[in-house]
Amino acid sequence: MLVVMKNHATPEQIDQVLGAIRRLELTAHPLPGATRTAIGITGNVGAVDPRSLEVLPGVLELIRVTKPYKLASREMHAEDTTIRTPQTTIGPGTFTLIAGPCSVENEEMILRTADFLRGLGVNLMRAGAYKPRSSPYAFQGMGQEGLDILARAREKTGIGIVTELLDTDNADAVEAAADIIQIGTRNMQNFSLLKRVARARKPVLLKRGMAATLEEWLMAAEYVMAGENYEVVLCERGVRTFSDHSRNTLDLSVIPPVRALSHLPILVDPSHGTGKRDYVPAMALAALAAGADGLLIEIHPTPEKALSDGAQSLDFAAFASLVERLRRLAEVLGRTLN
Ligand code: PEP
Ligand code: MN
């Protein structure tokens, strides 16, 4: 349910509505807009008599949100959402690049990558310290040591850090090291993890489950937002289909429906989406053309030596050339690369 306040509603009137919602044992989510404030209501709204709120001073109208995801829906929040980190923004008008190795492997390669990215004007670096690997015998990530390396790279270069949270045990440490907390495809419906990041004071990059429908994905976002963390960035990374010419099927056709149904920004990860570095540039450019808000791309100083996902990682020269092509396309589309 959405309470739309009148244009000239006073802060006291808004407070009065918030109090009334809380007395009904529901959660109130103030949604300040350009012209007027709206207040989202979540919880068991079925039992609420809308008239009890409609009559309060300053209230324009009550709208029932029909979708099962409420806070993530455009019905509740018409304007596109902008996510801010200390280094950059993700959202309307911009096209945000996030790049870096699949895994933190050592300090030297992370610092080299961070310096390289800063030189290209890229403000966010991705790298996993905790890795969800299909094989228990594969490199599992450097764990806490990896987080420490990322924290030092941030301190030395000013680059923002995007890193994955695998389980709730590491949540405090990952939250401290990250500017954006990544939830991977395998954890999109790990509800205890979603509830934990709902309490985090950092934005969450929520990858689409590899077999998730759009509704399931937005419901996962809703878990985070229901806990009052409204900073969710969606990331399409390919889904499982019968196609076997690429690692996954990068579902760029999900972008227009995401934009229609949700106000949250959406990034595309063409690295996991294709699994092959040769296919990454074409899909990256296509993602920009299709209306994505940015990219998450794996790069590595020496991809052939990477401890994970080398086959889909671009080397620095290939990434620099892609950034140049993205810049030119972004200009035509009226977007600014950041
Ligand atoms: C990753 O970003 O390195 C990763 C493991 O991604 P996904 O969860 O999409 O497989
Ligand atoms: Mn990877």
> Shape from CA axes?
elongated
Give the class-level CATH name of the largest domain: Alpha Beta
Bound molecule kinds, no repeats: phosphoenolpyruvate, manganese (II) ion
**Tally of individual domains:** 2
CATH architectural name of the largest domain: Alpha-Beta Barrel
CATH fold naming of the largest domain: TIM Barrel
Largest sheet: 8 strands, parallel, barrel
Class of secondary structure makeup: alpha/beta
Helical proportion, percent range: 25-40%
Distance between the termini: 36 Å
Helix tally equals 11
Q: Radius of gyration, rounded?
A: 21 Å
Q: Which runs of at least 5 residues are low in confidence (pLDDT < 50)?
A: none
Number of E strands: 15
Spatial strand sequence of the major β-sheet: 7-8-9-10-11-12-13-14
Q: Kindly estimate the percentage of residues that lie in beta strands according to DSSP.
A: 15-25%
Mean model confidence by pLDDT:
96
Give a verbal description of the structure.
The protein is α/β, with parallel strands linked by helices. It has helices spanning 11-23, 51-54, 107-119, 144-157, 171-177, 191-198, 214-226, 255-261, 270-274, 280-290, 316-332, and strands at 2-5, 27-32, 37-42, 59-63, 83-84, 89-90, 94-100, 124-126, 160-164, 180-183, 204-207, 232-236, 266-268, 294-298, 336-337. The protein has an 8-stranded parallel β-barrel, surrounded by 7 helices. It has a 4-stranded antiparallel β-sheet with strand order 2-3-1-4, with helices on one face. A two-stranded antiparallel sheet has the order 5-6. The longest helix has 17 residues, at 316-332. The protein is elongated. The mean pLDDT is 96. Manganese (II) ion binds at residues 102, 272, 298, 308-309.
